[in-house]
Specification:
This protein is an alpha/beta fold. The chain has 2 domains: 13-151, Rossmann fold (3-Layer(aba) Sandwich); 165-300, 3-Layer(bba) Sandwich (Glucose Oxidase, domain 1). It contains 10 helices and 13 strands. Strands 6-10-9-8-7-12-13 form a 7-stranded mixed sheet. Strands 2-1-3-4-5-11 form a 6-stranded mixed sheet, with helices on both faces. The chain is globular.
Length: 307
């Protein structure tokens, strides 16, 4: 059974956690100012500003904050401060079934993909969205508008948003799954592995070398996951072209991805506005949507929230 989160309303409280890498206090404050400016309250959990090298504190402490936020009756949704690295280390300390049943939104992207996949394995909708770090920097008005629309249960795309570019033509419908490419590949073989059969797969990533993008898309092909999907929507491989290595061949990421998508043969498009790019839409995962490669659009077919 599909478990949809409760829609937020002005005055609700978002619990702030750091499941992965650390965030600087000034950037967290700037990001939360955007929430406060729209009339939402925030509650920063005890370890949100911890730092342990590449991680935002000890695994058990980060997980404790997440569970405390989902259990807190005063918290209406759980908002991640940033991604980076570390979510997969938390599974021994998390009760994913309890989180799924809470009907509270989990909001974030990048490394948070790992937690989104886990929640989808329990039938729960979660939100691929900007985080505190993302909102700490100026964004196009429609980026912020999309974020608050989805949080309040409105699945329409704001005016001004850009559209995708067709690779393999077609119209397809299915439940939205996906997120950050490297984490989708990392999930294979785990209890919360990516499942794509009959679904719309969304993919993006950041700071990967072009040959690694090729390798990961090839891995999804070899695992049958690309061709099993009803359709594929690719955002941006952010800062990948800057990492081209002429010693092993110099090929732009869009050429690499387009060739791999054509091999899969399902309706697909690239350059759709989501992911680590500065212009990103907020996308609920676990709900049905329709993609139209000719129009370059992705349209929700149901509300991301109940109530």
């Amino acid at each position: 059974m599909l478990i949809k989160p409760r829609a937020l309303k002005v005055g609700d409280t978002l619990g702030i956690v750091s499941p992965a890498s650390p965030i600087k206090p000034d950037l967290l404050a700037k990001g939360l100012d955007v929430l406060h400016g729209r009339g939402f309250k925030t509650k920063v959990f005890p370890h949100a500003l911890d730092r342990d090298a590449m991680l935002a504190g000890r695994d058990v402490d980060r997980a404790d904050d997440i569970m405390a936020a989902f259990r807190d009756p005063d918290v209406d949704a759980v908002f991640c401060s940033r991604g980076g690295y570390g979510c997969a280390r938390l599974f021994p300390f998390l009760d994913i079934a309890e989180i799924a049943k809470s009907r509270k939104m989990l909001i974030g992207f990048s490394d948070i993909t790992t937690l989104h996949l886990a929640l989808q394995s329990y039938g729960a909708v979660s939100i691929h969205a900007p985080m505190a770090l993302t909102l700490a920097y100026d964004r196009e008005p429609w980026v912020v508008d999309s974020f608050f629309r989805i949080l309040q249960g409105d699945g329409t795309v704001p005016d001004g948003a850009s559209v995708g570019e067709e690779v393999v033509p077609g119209v397809a419908e299915g439940v939205l799954v996906g997120g950050c490419l490297c984490l989708l590949c990392d999930s294979i073989g785990t209890p919360h592995a990516l499942e794509t059969k009959g679904r719309l797969l969304i993919i993006e990533d950041v700071d990967e070398n072009p040959h690694r993008v090729d390798a990961m898309f090839t891995h999804l092909l070899n695992a049958g996951l690309l061709q099993d999907a009803a359709g594929v929507v690719v955002g941006e491989m952010t800062r990948t072209d800057e990492r081209r290595d002429e010693t092993i061949g110099d090929r732009p990421w869009r050429e690499i991805v387009s060739e791999r998508l054509q091999k899969a043969g399902v309706p697909s498009m690239i350059n759709y506005p989501f992911g680590h790019m500065s212009t990103m839409l907020t996308i609920p995962l676990g709900v049905r949507a329709r993609m139209d490669t000719g129009l370059g659009t992705l349209e929700l077919l149901e509300s991301p929230c109940d109530g």
